[in-house]
Amino acid sequence: MICMRAAISAGISVIALCSAAGAQAQSAPVQTAAAESAGDAQFGNEIVVTAQRRAETVQSVPISINAFGSKQLQDLRATTPADIATLSPGVFVTGSRGDQNPVFSIRGLSLNDTFSNNNPEVGIYFDDVILPYTPMLSFQMFDIQRVEVLKGPQGTLYGRNTTAGAINFISAKPTQDFQGYFTGTYARYGRKELEGAFGGGVTDTLAVRFSGKTVQQSSGWQYNDLTGQHIGKVNNVALRAQALWTPTERLTVHLEGTYVYDHSDVQQREHIGYYAGAFGAGGYCAPALAGYRDESQCVDFLGYSDTDPNRRHVQDSSLYGVKSDSRGQGVMLNVGYDLGGAKLTSITGYNHFKRRSGDDSDGAALIELDSLFTDKIKSFTQELRLSSEGNGPLTWVGGLYYSWDRIAGDALQALDDHIFHTRVDTSYVQTTKAYAAFGQLSYALTDKLKLTGGLRFTRDEKRYTYDAVDLDPFGDSTLPTPAGLVKNHVNQSNVSGKVGIDYKVDRDLMLYASASKGFKSGGFKAAIAFNPDEVAPFRGETVWAYEAGVKSTLMGGKLTLNAAGYYNNWRNFQAMVTEIRSGINVITLSNAGNARVYGGEVEAQLRPTDSLQFRASANWQSTKITKFNTAPGSDDYTGNRLANAPKLTASGQARWETPIGGDSWGVYILGDASYRSKVYFSLANRGQNSQDGYWLLNGRIGIHDKQDRWELAVFGKNILNKLYVSASYDNWGGIFPSQDFLGDPATYGVQATVRF
User: Fold this and answer.
1) Under DSSP, is residue 53 helix (H, G, I), strand (E, B) or coil?
2) 440-491 pLDDT tens trace
3) Of 1, 25, 32, 255, which has the fewest Cβ atoms less than 10 A away?
4) Would you tell me how many other CB atoms lie within 10 Å of the CB of residue 393?
């Protein structure tokens, strides 16, 4: 043990080297044995969560929440945040530029902008620290203890306000016991993954943990007919180092750093034409009017079409290449102090993330719109939180929050073969200061009945500088003059809150209901503008969310059955619209109008025997735009469905295990499936930019020893090789084509794990 501690002590210097949280920051661990073991739970409702800033089981929390432990995540091959969407009802993810900027939707509410500078409706937290922009959300998951998915506004308990919900990623924390694991994976397309963690006590008061993951892939499923190359190479490395110091029973200090590096191919776009002839001759083609893609009959504005019948082949010019280079660093410090009857927590985080990626933004062999995107993000957050301790009838949490972030973006775009025959550079710098005071208290009127109330004050201040330049490298540009240097700002304050009630019929049945208001501040358009009014700020959006639900445990604990119904009144939601500004029509990102969402969801988990487990969940929802703000004569989407909001999402898993070789080894079989009904990727609800309902089937077979120290498994994802659209851009009626991104085809591999 002395040798182990010496080896661990020698590695402490790695914390300084890796002091980062480029996409991940940490918080103080929950110091309970239940929480430490929760990551291995296969039954999600057994997991101890901290959604309400105290350790509770999922069944005792009076909100809609899904939780997944580390073993579940490994067995279901959830390796990035986007994979959570196939497990949690009502959650949907679409990507911008492949998986570059994943946009999360919960219960129909999502971000309606593909640029990097606007904050998403769904807050993505890594150990209580928010990742404020979508470029930061495609990180590799490793050494995760659990994931919590919370539905509805989350403002009275969280530092940053969110309207649709929050997803919390919680890492495994240092322990005094020496422990760790190593996992190696080899999969289709030459994919090699190696991840692991180790750590333990250095002294009686200091424990450390080091973890990391690397993904290397030599090929990919996408093929470029023009270059003769496969697209899909991956070179990804992520490291994390943590130190947990507990000098007294009251004081806890947690320091963490991470470093992330990614040099990988970017998925290229599938071309979609919608004209019958070049320059719009003949009007729209018949397939486009009927709502489906047919490149044999449809062309883009310049007359180009992609006639390769294999949809996993592209014909992309890729002037700026297909690589994405990103790096992230940062540091986090979490300090907790027990005051006696209350606990004071301070969470300080700093993130620095930068990325440069090439993209053929038209999906054509012609250089109609080839792009080189650059994002540079700096983010600082400070949260102070005071929470009650003990088991009295009154529990409460109060906090103060401050954040500062800066994002600088640049888009160098080539239109060499377009009628404009030029290249243009669009750039922006946006800084945001956010202040908040929040609190929530619950009071038990009786042993069964409890009331909850919360309030939040938010103040956001954004400063924005925008510029665009026609570089005119060929000397004959016909591009309209872009808007030059524009500076603007938007300041907003808002009061939001929550009221709730829950009633415990008995120890196994709880009823609850709540009403809450969420708020997301305004912002600015980052795409190219030809009139300064297009870059004028838009205001914040709000949602009034109502929910009633039931949580039950039946059959002596073998079955949990949870259900909820909800209604969202979404007002002044943000999307691209046509408005009249300064007397002319402009296309801009603005407050598009109002929408309503109602629906219900259910989750059931059954363990009839120790060797057999089932989980099934589903969400049905109806979304409708009730008011759409647009200029006279422009498209009016009133009555349409919201984008990225399928009516039905469902998933299910079944796991069966049997011992072999006596009781020393076990073999298990796991099957899981997910379904998404038809989804539209734009507010226009055009069939060309939609995906019909589809199933995805996955499987895993493994063998492990009784102590679960050794495990060998084979797995498959999308084993039926379903071809489906994962994201789509709607440019209908314009001078650029629409485009699709496709989901991954069938993949399979083998995985070996050793735990110690």
Assistant:
1) coil
2) 999 999 999 999 999 999 999 999 999 999 999 999 999 999 999 999 999 9
3) 1
4) 11
Pick from 244, 166, 253: nearest CA to 201: 244
Distance CA(277)–CA(285), nearest Å, equals 8
Main-chain dihedrals φ then ψ at residue 479, nearest 5 degrees: -70, 135
Residue 159 has pLDDT above 60, yes or no: yes
Burial class (CB in 10 A: 0-12, 13-18, 19+), 621: buried
Q: Provide, rounded to the nearest whole percent, the portion of the chain with pLDDT above 90.
A: 81
Q: Dihedral sign, CA of 640, 642, 646, 649?
A: negative
Which token pair is 628?
Answer: 């759409």
> Distance between the two ends of the chain, CA-based, in angstroms?
14
Go through the chain and tell me how many residues it has. Answer: 756
Sheet of 725-729: strand order equals: 270-272, 738-742, 725-729
DSSP-derived 3-state class of residue 40: coil
pLDDT at 42 (0 to 100): 53
Contact 287, 294 (CB under 8 A): yes
For the four alpha carbons of 572, 576, 577 and 578, in that order, the dihedral sign comes to positive
Beta strands in 202-250 (DSSP E): 206-217, 222-224, 229-231, 234-245
Angle at 232 between CA 229 and CA 233, to 5 degrees: 95
- Contacts with 186 (C-beta within 8 Å, 6 or more apart), sequence order: 192, 193, 749, 750
* Closest by Cα among 648, 653, 628, 650 to 638: 628
- Which residues are CB-neighbours of 426 under 8 A, at least 6 positions away? 410, 411, 413, 466, 467, 468, 482, 526, 527, 528
Was domain 2-269+316-755 assigned CATH 2.40.170.20? yes
Cα 650-169-189 angle, rounded to 5 deg: 70
Q: Which helix (H) or strand (E) holds 74?
A: helix 70-75
Q: Which two tokens stand for residue 404?
A: 């500062």
The contacts of residue 396 (CB under 8 Å, 6+ apart) are 387, 388, 439, 440, 441, 442
Write the DSSP string, 549-581: EEEEEEGGGTEEEEEEEEEEEEEEEEEEEEEEE
pLDDT digits (tens, 9 = 90+) for 288-336: 999 999 999 999 999 999 999 999 999 999 899 999 999 999 899 999 9
Helix (H) or strand (E) holding 621: strand 612-628
What count of other Cβ atoms lies within 10 Å of the Cβ of residue 249?
Answer: 7
Residues 6+ apart with CB under 8 A from 535: 464, 466, 483, 486, 488, 524, 525, 529, 588
Q: Indicate the average pLDDT of the chain.
A: 90
CA nearest to 606, candidates 663, 560, 552, 658: 560
- Indicate whether this model's pTM tops 0.85: yes
117 neighbors 180 (Cβ within 8 angstroms)? no
Tokens representing 548 are 């009633």
Sheet with 229-231, strands from edge to edge, namely 229-231, 222-224, 313-314
Q: For residue 291, is it left (φ>0), alpha (ψ between -120 and 50) or beta? A: left
| Interatomic CA distance for residues 607 and 76, integer angstroms | 18
Number of C-beta neighbours around residue 593 at 10 A:
21
Residue 12 has pLDDT above 80, yes or no: no
8-state DSSP, 136 = G
